[in-house]
Structures are given as C-alpha cells and as structure tokens.
Write a structure and sequence with these properties.
The protein is α/β, with parallel strands linked by helices. The protein contains 14 helices and twelve strands. Helix 12 packs across helix 13. Bound molecules: nicotinamide-adenine-dinucleotide. The site of nicotinamide-adenine-dinucleotide has 20 residues, from helix 7 and strand 7.
Amino acid sequence: MAAEALELTECTRSLIKYPERVLTVNIPFRMDNGDIHRFEGYRVQHNTSRGPAKGGIRYHPDVTLDEVKALAMWMTWKCAVVNIPFGGGKGGVIVDPKKLTNPELERMTRRYTAGIAPLLGPHRDIPAPDVYTNSQTMGWIMDTYSMMSAAGYPTPSVVTGKPISIGGSLGRNEATGRGAYHTLQSACAHLHIPMKGSKSVVQGFGNAGSVVAKLLDGEQSLVIAVNDSRGGVFNAAGLDIPKLMLYKERTGSVVGFPNAEAISNENLLALECDILIPAALENAITGENAHRVSAKIIAEAANGPLTPDADAILEGNGVFIIPDILCNAGGVTVSYFEWCQNEQHYYWDLHEVEARLENVMNKAFQEVLNLHSDRKVGMRLAANMLGINRVAEATMARGLYP
Ligand code: NAD
C-alpha cells in the first residue's frame, strides 16, 4: 500500500522488496555430556542502501526463515523512519534456549557467530538482542568476532546491547519504553489530551511496558491497569507504579499486588481509558476484541500487536494509532548511539543519551504526523511511506551495479 501511495516504479519496488543476502548456517556444538547437537540458524540482510544492516538475533523453537526475512524488512523501514543511517537485518536460531545450560548456550552462540561472521562487521551488519537473547549473548558474539577478525583485539561496534563494561551505552535498557513515551507526549499534545490526569493501561509489564508506565506515572497520568503473562491488576485511582515495579522484581509478576483488583486480559483491553499501550506480544488485539477497545490513543510498544482486522476496526473508530515502527524505534535509536560511541571511543553520559533520543523521536513523530495530515492517510501508512520512501531514494541514488 505504501509503495502504491508513493507511486514507486516497478523497478524500484523490486529493488527494495527482496532481501539482499540470506545465509543459513549449520550449528553443531558440544553439549555438557559430550554429545554433539546441531541447530539451524539464519542471518538476513534486507537492505543496506542507507547503512550497515541492523537487527536483533532471536533464539526460539518457532523461528522460520520467512519470519526472519519479514523481521529484517521491518527493521529496514524502522531505521529509516527515525532516520538513523542503518539498513535492516535480523537473525535467528531454531532452538529452545531454556533447554540448554549456560555453557551450552555460550558454545552454541559462538558457533553460530562463527557461521555468520562473513556477513558481520561494524560497517556491514551489527546484531543486537531480541527474543531470548540478552547483553551476555552480545558479549559472546563480540568476543567471538574479535577473536576471529581482529586477533582478539576488541571490536565493540560489531554488536549493540552489550554489557556497559565492554562498550554498552547508558540508557539502552530503558530506550524502547522511553522512546514510546516521547511519541505519546507528542500524540497527546497533537490531540489536546493533557497527560496529567489522563488514564492509561499497559498490556505487558516487561522491559518496554514498565518503563512507559513509570514515565507516564511521573507525569501524573493514572496508570489504572497493567498485566503480564500470569494476569493483571486494576485500580481506578491509579496503580503505584514504582511500588509495582519493586513488587514484580521481588515476585516475578504483577499478580497479587496489594491495593488492586485482579483483571483479565480481555477486560483490561476494554477498560475506559485515554491511552492503551500493547507492550507484550504480536497479534494481541484482533478483529474479535478490537471493537471493545475504548482508548483514544494506542501506542504500539510491541511489534505487530494489532492484526490487520483490528487495525481497520480501530482506525475506523477514530483511534489514534502510533505504529510500532515509530513507537518502539527508541531501542534501535539508542543502539545506533551505542555504535556511534564505540566508533568514536568517546562515551556519553545518560543525560546526553536521553536528550538525543527525545530529539530523534520527536522529529520522527512530527514527520509521520505531517504525512498523515498532508496525505490524509492513517499513521501506520504514513510511517511506512516515510520509511519506504527514504530507502527507495537511497537505493535509486546509489544506482544499479554494475
Ligand atoms: P519483556 O519480555 O521484557 O516483556 C514482555 C512482557 O509481556 C512480560 O512481562 C510478559 O509477562 C508479558 N506477556 C507475555 N504474554 C502476555 C500476555 N498474553 N498478556 C499480557 N502480557 C503478556 O519484553 P520487552 O523487551 O518489553 O518486549 C515487549 C515487546 O516490545 C515485544 O513485542 C518486542 O518485540 C517489542 N520491542 C522491544 C524492544 C526492546 O528493546 N526491548 C525493542 C523493540 C520492540
């Protein structure tokens, strides 16, 4: 749809539609008991016209090559929407990491890294954490790459989301939630909804969701309900978010938090509120439950939380949707800052990271909003148009080799 709205030629479309590189690797490694196991892994670079490929690596039993290709394309548009000089990539291994010990996970990660190493490099392809990978995984990847390509001398800028001790950036952990919060500030200002006193609901009180909730709470928005995979809690007068964060840290869930009632996921989505933040999984809101949503703004902190049916219903009902490739781009933006700091060998304080993030998110929001108003299209289509157009322009500017 975005390509049509932009009136891109068939030639341009075919240049940006398909991944540039797809690598499948065999990953044999030794288990603790001496047996050899093997898994299959992938790395896909969708488009590198605007810069090196950037995108996470996920470990999950349901990973497929098609999914990795789609996620890589998603990263291309996301990086372009916030105008950071990266293209899109993604990696995945078909594995249930919960069934491996930590040493097994390390050996598997190192062998996978060795397999995809020909594609990696600070100016070629820069992985990051995704589902069931974390800063430790990035530390192993950085070390393996450094051993293989630089005789062990450190190459921190080959991955982001690293531990701070080896070149990670301050503010990376909070970046996705903080970026989503800035898009909400802009949306509230645009719709003349005062944040102070507004009612908000967060589905998925994890890394991204809890940070948005904390920042909204700080602006005196009443966060009336949140949930996680085990259940939800509700208080019409607003939950005490700092206490809830400590409670979840201690117990592992929000369930049973004092001074709150239990609430089901279905009822949480249907609560009367101004702001709804899906921050859990894909396809959380569907054609079945979308008509029950009464929020005025939906901020997609999660990737793909609305099915196409739900999207059509909610847009038809006049809900203002902040699409995922804009709303949750704070994570990849601070990943970019991490890479910049590594490349400069000069590290920023937290204030600088946060100020620059706010600047990038506000600018991107305004650019998407301008397209939304000028072209009279939904925010999702506007974001796609902005991202795709930037990639198409870069692709055409580089021309066709040979
Ligand atoms: P996370 O694992 O920290 O949090 C996810 C939360 O959702 C957990 O609290 C989990 O219990 C909860 N949850 C799972 N199933 C649920 C259900 N059925 N109902 C309600 N809650 C449920 O993950 P995260 O890093 O916060 O990521 C959340 C979403 O944000 C994902 O879609 C992810 O792709 C997206 N995202 C995250 C980042 C990042 O940097 N963390 C960047 C971009 C996008």
